[in-house]
Specification:
It is a single chain. By secondary structure, the protein is of the alpha+beta class. It has helices spanning 9-27, 32-39, 43-55, 72-82, 84-102, 144-152, 155-161, 178-191, 234-258, and strands at 59-61, 68-70, 105-112, 115-122, 137-139, 194-197, 204-212, 218-227. It has 2 domains: 9-70, Winged helix-like DNA-binding domain superfamily/Winged helix DNA-binding domain (Arc Repressor Mutant, subunit A, Orthogonal Bundle), CATH 1.10.10; 82-258, Beta-Lactamase. It contains 9 helices and 8 strands. The strands form 2 sheets. Strands 5-4-3-8-7-6 form a 6-stranded antiparallel beta sheet. A two-stranded antiparallel ribbon has the order 1-2.
Length: 259
């Protein structure tokens, strides 16, 4: 990686920081030693730059002394650059197909802090259905799509969003403790999808997956919302999960083509 640095110390520091961001974006995982070698600086300098970028949210670590990965600030800048309208243009065809294949309501949602906002929706054709979720804001840990996004976040970003580890409970089924949430997220990472049976709103169940960007950072979530009368158990949700995985793959492929 070539890095042309100006002799001015301030400009040199800025140039190194920008080069470091490029390196993290290209490799998706960087250690202090590797960063120092690529930049041609001392390890102490590389560590200081990474610590500053971490404090600003541009990089994150899964654990202390671990590798540095793209942080939430980079993700937020990317969203602003490409625009949510463009993301909707990429995702909505998959939502439409998902609604047809499941005959249920399919939604696109974004993480905002530790909440999710439903951005777009394709309603089920059934007379008894979950209505449009567009504009609804709910705690992320109470929704299937939100939990899927949380499970895909680096540990440092997850903790940043829950500094006091306190969880809002909306129904008797809501996850109420930090330990219970951590256990649930571990299961989601293993299965690749999240379930919600009346956790955000009584009478509504859902299955959700995260939609990663081109470097693996969760860009958004998609979910299928179902009346609990048709999805009262996890096993019923498990049957729908492969359809969401197919939509997830389709969206990822479209993102590659567009961006």
């Amino acid at each position: 990686m070539q890095n042309s640095r100006a002799p001015d110390p301030v400009m040199s520091s800025v140039d190194n920081a920008l080069a470091l961001l490029q390196l993290v974006g290209q490799r998706n995982a960087v250690r202090v030693a590797g960063a120092a070698e690529e930049l041609g600086v001392a390890r102490s300098t590389a560590h200081r730059l990474l610590a500053t970028l971490k404090a600003r949210g541009f990089v994150a670590q899964d654990r202390p002394n671990g590798t540095y990965r793209p942080g939430p600030a980079l993700y937020e800048i990317a969203l602003a650059a490409i625009g949510r309208t463009d993301i909707r243009r990429v995702v909505v065809p998959a939502l439409e197909a998902l609604s047809v294949s499941t005959r249920e309501t399919a939604s696109l949602l974004f993480l905002e802090g530790n909440q999710v906002r439903f951005i777009d929706c394709v309603e089920s054709p059934r007379s008894v259905r979950v209505g449009s979720r567009t504009g609804v804001v709910l705690p992320a840990h109470c929704t299937a799509g939100g939990k899927a996004i949380l499970a895909a976040l680096p540990e440092a970003d997850l903790l940043r969003r829950y500094p006091d580890k306190q969880l809002e409970t909306r129904t008797p089924n809501s996850i109420a403790t930090w330990d219970a949430l951590r256990e649930e997220l571990a299961g989601i990472r293993e299965s690749g999808y999240a379930l919600n049976i009346g956790e955000g709103e009584s009478g509504i169940s859902a299955v959700g997956v995260a939609v990663p960007d081109l470097i693996g950072v969760p860009l958004a979530g998609i979910a299928v919302a179902i009346p609990t009368s048709r999805m009262a158990t996890a096993a019923e949700g498990d049957e729908i999960a492969p359809l969401l995985a197919r939509a997830q793959d389709e969206i990822t492929q479209r993102l590659r083509e567009v961006f």
